[in-house]
Amino acid sequence: MNVAEHIKALNEFDLADLDMENIGSWPAALKAILLGLLFTLIVVTGFYFHIDDLNQQLAVVEKEEQTLRQDFEKKAFEAANLDAYKAQLVEMEARFGALVAQLPSETEVPGLLEDITDKGELNGLSIKRIDLLDEQAQTFYIELPIAIEAVGSYHDLGAFISGMAGLPRIVTLHDFDITIDADAAPMLEMSILAKTYRYREEDDGA
Predict the structure, then answer these.
(1) Where are the alpha helices (DSSP H) in 81-145?
(2) pLDDT of residue 146
């Protein structure tokens, strides 16, 4: 049967006579049209899902590209400023070394106590007590508390406290307590806690 005959048979066919449960009995031309529609639907649906999948992959790739671009820009900036970073590192190491040099070692502590005593006497104080207390371990350093009791005038005490800042080692002052010395009024008695520090070595206990 040629094409003309198929078209004639299709024109003569009444759609009301179609049996949806027996598609095999349909005219060949109608079956061909149905198959064509199904094929087109399958192709369009497959193409849609394929394009959607490609779009999702493209979005992921574009996001990765943006991340890689930012990482590249960051590394390019760091590479361009590498010499400056090295110079800053050298400077920081020098500063750190200078700070560590101001922290007394265990063998220097007696000399520091003598310096504090000399500083007090130089400013007219009478040092009643200067005791090294138990060490306090911190994360990166060891605190060395020093209990000081001294007697002197108001101005002498002020001069002593100011003079402590001029010591070659780092010393901080805490817990001031000043009272009138009952035995030597109008002299004042000062109790103060001084703290110096040393770098915490790896073999130092917790």
Answers:
(1) 82-101, 109-122
(2) 92
Q: What is the DSSP letter of 59?
A: H
3-class DSSP assignment, residue 204 = coil
Amino acid at 195: K
Fold type of domain 105-199: Alpha-Beta Plaits (3.30.70)
pTM of the model: 0.49
**Mean pLDDT per 10-residue segment, the chain (206 residues):** 51 54 62 77 77 80 86 84 84 76 69 88 88 84 89 90 84 88 77 86 59
DSSP 69-92: HHHHHHHHHHHHTHHHHHHHHHHH
Domain ranges of the chain: 1-80, 105-199
pLDDT at 191: 92
Tell me if residue 168 falls in helix, strand or coil: coil
Task: Name the packing angle between helices 28-80 and 3-12 (round to 10°).
Answer: 110
CB 178 within 8 A of CB 189: yes
The CA distance from 198 to 106, in Å, is 8
Q: Distance between CA atoms of 147 and 24, rounded to whole angstroms?
A: 109
